[in-house]
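Hypothesis: this fold can be encoded by more than one sequence.
Test: take the structure tokens below, design a sequence, compare later.
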């Protein structure tokens, strides 16, 4: 889920639905923990490697040409080998978020403009690709190939296997950030390469995601109910606004504060359907042809709001205009 969708079900101003794409992040942090499963940590700072553990701290300078911040996946392997003699390292090594290229944050636009990810689309809950397989067995082979990719254990994709295709989602999650990173970009390229090696093609038009948006004048009063009934958890970077499925199975919930209550004092729920930008107009046209009406389009191409004949609203949302 990216910035929260917004629409007062009762009318009025609305923010943008989804991931928090418009939320700034602190660029002055020099080090931060990304993954950890041990007391040993490895930081890359200004071209040097500092190994820090409970036992003390050591430093070495590995032989990497060029910009020390531009670490590729092969470089990371070499880095591990060069420093491994200084201290026995365990899984869960940490890299400084700014310094390590593997965790550099990027925008949806930067992701889409990168080479090698033409089959992927960034939606409200991450970068997604759908690979048509034609059979359950062929899909299982792709899942097996993905599981064998270098680095996949440290940055796991969400993979959905069905009889006729495999959907893969990539998203970087930390305590203060849900969004895209260069780590996602590199893994997307490897997954696409694995699919091509198996003779499988992706269909970008087949991906979409759903965000559910309950509205209330005081969202803090209704979030505990939805957390209990869904079995969801607060999203770490926006715990007062979002609930997410801890197993990444169901749609995320973003809670919208209504400026005015409904006449009967109740709340309202609408949904946001995230689609690839090139599919938005066709989806809108289909909804209008099916009896819907346009409620507002002044926020296009970020989102359009439509309603059915009973007044129930739905946003057609894209990541356009959210950088």
């Amino acid at each position: 889920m990216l910035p929260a969708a917004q629409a007062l079900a009762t009318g009025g101003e609305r923010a943008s639905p989804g991931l928090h794409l418009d939320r700034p992040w602190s660029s002055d942090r020099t080090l931060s923990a990304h993954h950890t499963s041990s007391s040993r940590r490895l930081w890359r700072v200004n071209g040097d490697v500092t190994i820090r553990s409970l036992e003390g701290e050591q430093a070495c300078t590995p032989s990497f040409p060029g910009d020390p911040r531009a670490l590729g996946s092969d470089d990371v392997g070499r880095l591990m080998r060069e420093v491994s003699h200084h201290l026995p390292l365990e899984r869960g090594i940490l890299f400084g978020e700014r310094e390590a290229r593997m965790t550099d944050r990027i925008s949806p636009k930067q992701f889409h403009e990168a080479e090698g990810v033409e089959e992927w689309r960034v939606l409200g809950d991450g970068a997604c690709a759908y690979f048509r397989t034609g059979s359950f067995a062929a899909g299982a082979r792709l899942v097996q190939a993905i599981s064998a990719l270098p680095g996949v254990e440290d940055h796991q994709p969400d993979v959905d296997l069905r009889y006729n295709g495999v959907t893969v989602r990539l998203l970087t999650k930390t305590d203060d950030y849900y969004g895209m990173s260069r780590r996602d970009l590199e893994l997307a390229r490897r997954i696409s390469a694995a699919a091509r090696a198996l003779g499988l093609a992706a269909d970008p038009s087949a991906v979409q995601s759903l965000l559910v948006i309950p509205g209330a004048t005081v969202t803090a009063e209704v979030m505990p109910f939805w957390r209990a009934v869904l079995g969801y958890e607060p999203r770490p970077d926006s715990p007062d606004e979002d609930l997410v499925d801890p197993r990444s199975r169901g749609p995320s919930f973003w809670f919208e504060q209504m400026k005015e209550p409904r006449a009967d004092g109740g709340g309202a729920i609408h949904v946001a359907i995230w689609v690839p930008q090139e599919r938005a107009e066709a989806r809108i046209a289909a909804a209008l042809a099916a009896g819907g009406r346009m409620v507002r389009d002044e926020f296009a191409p970020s989102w359009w709001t439509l309603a059915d004949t009973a007044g129930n609203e739905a946003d057609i949302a894209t990541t356009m205009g959210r950088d």
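Helices lie at 73-83, 108-113, 136-147, 182-197, 219-230, 280-289. Residues 103-205 form a domain with the Gyrase A; domain 2 fold (CATH 3.30.1360.20).
Hypothesis status: open.
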